[in-house]
Amino acid sequence: MLARGAGFVLGNALMRTLSAAIAALGLLAGPGAARALDLHDSRSSPFDLAFTGRLSGVPAGQTRYAAWSEIRALPTSKVTLNGEFTSGDQVLTVVFLGDLLKALPASAGTDALLATCGDGYASVYTLDFIAQYRPFLVLEINGKGPKDWPPPGLDYNPGPYVITVSSALAPAAAKYRDIEHKKPWGVAAIELANYAERYRGIYTGPRASLSAAARDGRDIWVNSCACCHAGPPGSFGGTKADRPFQVIAAYAGYDRPFFMKYVRKPKSLVPCAKMEPHPDYSDAELSNLIEFITADER
Ligand code: HEC
Question: Which domain holds residue 119?
Fold first, then answer.
């Protein structure tokens, strides 16, 4: 357990302020009193969840850890979903990200969570998204935790943690454009972040005042492409794809047909492509994406 020094007390005060702000946003659905999650200096198991970023009382750049059993002791809900991981009905034990955030010593200015997976894939959850779409961390599938995963019938291991969203809980999720990118598995770390700070590279400089089309393209970039591709300097992104942003921008600027086809169906151009297909973007959406990606070239 961490020593609870003055920093921690201050942290709690800030956390209460943040919780109040979150409550005011209507995020706190459950009646359960907030319970703090103990954070540890070092990892004790591969099933620990790592936390970084704006943790009060924790020096910048340092990582803290919570054990699965400690997260399991937070207020949880049972959710029955059909076909989510295995076929048929399955009961999931979950912690809503809004409740997880309440249990963390988030410092002022925290308005987004960045979840990163073991393979470098990453997803962003803003407070607005959390309030509207109610993403949750899955702790158990049919009563079994990650030590017993994958559950029978699933051909990959979604552990140690998986975050998902369900239109059964938040009907709006059915219409969210990039909802599949809000369902990362293999989640190993969560950063408490300030959105404007972590994405300043695509909201400032040549991208400070974009057209409506390019702003839509930026939205696609943040919620889809950036799961695997790092953006221009000063913009958060996953590290799963090793292509620099300039390479993506070169395709977008000089070979639009290749770019559009690659985004929709990578394997149609490169048989061994590892990038997943995005077949549902319209021509207009891809054109908006191109306008955003090439914005600093005009
Ligand atoms: C799941 C991870 C993932 C996502 C999401 C993703 N990519 Fe990729 N992308 C890759 C990987 C990995 C490569 C490297 C080539 C390969 O194996 O497909 C790549 C390659 C590319 C290339 C070709 C570059 C080259 O050098 O051949 C382009 C263009 C590209 N991505 C654009 C995008 C855009 C635009 C989006 C968002 C709509 C996106 N990608 C989303 C993983 C991803």
Answer: 6-198
Domain end position, chosen among 164, 198, 232: 198
Q: Look at phi and psi of residue 214 and say left if phi exceeds 0, alpha if psi is from -120 to 50, else beta.
A: alpha
Collect all residues with Cβ–Cβ distance below 8 Å to 254 and sequence separation of at least 6: none
293 three-class SS: helix
Q: Residue 22 Cα, ligand 1 centroid: separation in angstroms?
A: 35
Q: Are 132 and 25 in contact (CB under 8 A)?
A: no
Asked if the structure places residue 1 within a domain, the reply is no
CA dihedral 284→234→18→108, nearest 10 degrees, is -150
Pocket of ligand 1 (CB under 6 A): 220, 224-225, 227-229, 240-241, 243, 247-248, 251, 259, 262-263, 266, 273-276, 278, 289
281 contacts 220 by C-beta, under 8 angstroms? yes
How many angstroms separate the CA atoms of 181 and 115, rounded?
11
CA gap 68, 49 in Å, rounded: 7
Report the pLDDT value the prediction gives residue 49, as an integer from 0 to 100: 98
Q: What is the pLDDT of residue 1?
A: 32
* Gap from CA of 216 to ligand 1 centroid (Å): 19
pTM: 0.89
What pLDDT does residue 35 have? 73
